[in-house]
Amino acid sequence: MRAISFSEYGGPEVLREVDVDSPEPRADQVRVQVRAAGVNPFDCKLRAGAFAGQIRLRLPHVPGAEVAGVVDAVGRDVAGTQVGDPVFGWAKSGGYAERATLSTFADVPAGLSWVDAAALPVAGEAANRALETLGLRAGETLLVHGAAGAVGTIAVQLALRAGATVVGTAGPSNQEDLTALGVTATVYGDGLLDRVRQLAPQGVDAVLDIAGKGALPASIELRGGTDRVVTLADPAASSLGVAFLAGTDSGQTAQLLAMLAGAVRAGQLALPTPRTFGLAAAADAHTLSERGTGRGKIVLDLTP
After folding, report:
1. Is the pTM of this model over 0.90?
2. CATH number assigned to the domain with residue range 126-244, chosen from the 4 options 3.20.20.330, 2.60.40.1230, 3.40.50.720, 3.50.50.60
3. How many Cβ atoms from other residues are within 10 Å of residue 246's Cβ?
4. Over the stretch 233-267, which tens digit does the pLDDT of each residue have?
């Protein structure tokens, strides 16, 4: 099968299209013919060697943590799933490939595209985990930095559904999109403290930083301390006494996937239009991801 892998750490140019054997599912896994695979900042950092000291990779390595596709093999311990079922979830083998194995997955409901389904697992789990960590309650005010990105867009909508008021920071071009979701939007940069105080005169009860653009000191001042301030992106977190939320497998559940997909299908969760590339253009997808521009998730589209 065709796959994208890297044999050495480096820039996007180290990604190569290769022919490899199809992975075989374990007893508790299914294998899918991949129709779409999400591209995440973590994939780029892994390829660049940012985690070489913490994560030992067997090179060559096929990246990709989330896929959507058609089941073509079912492990003996998997119940309720058949060959031909459309599913999406977290890839156990690399997702940048024509076939991948999954242990945790859910059905792709009718009307949800492959590309949108593949854009949900990583961003949706990160958003849900952050809100659970903050213990957000109805009636509270949440400040979100990076509110227009893939994780931020889901986080602000889940918070609004929970009955919170959301103040979100983003670039000038994303203000109208956030406002349309029900977010009280404002821009990054100088004067942030005064703008947020004006928009939330009652104060903020919790802060979620997804942007990693140096907003933690202002966030701590707005919150009145580091309690209920978390970041998914700012490496200065530890020096400031702020919790840095690293990814874990514990939040990866089929129930969460089904909730996210159902909310999108019902029109209760809006996703920015994903930006798509073919499998062979994975290096271009990584280049765009590292630029950090645009709202929508980046997805490799493998539909025939």
Report:
1. yes
2. 3.40.50.720
3. 7
4. 898 999 999 999 877 677 899 999 999 999 999 99
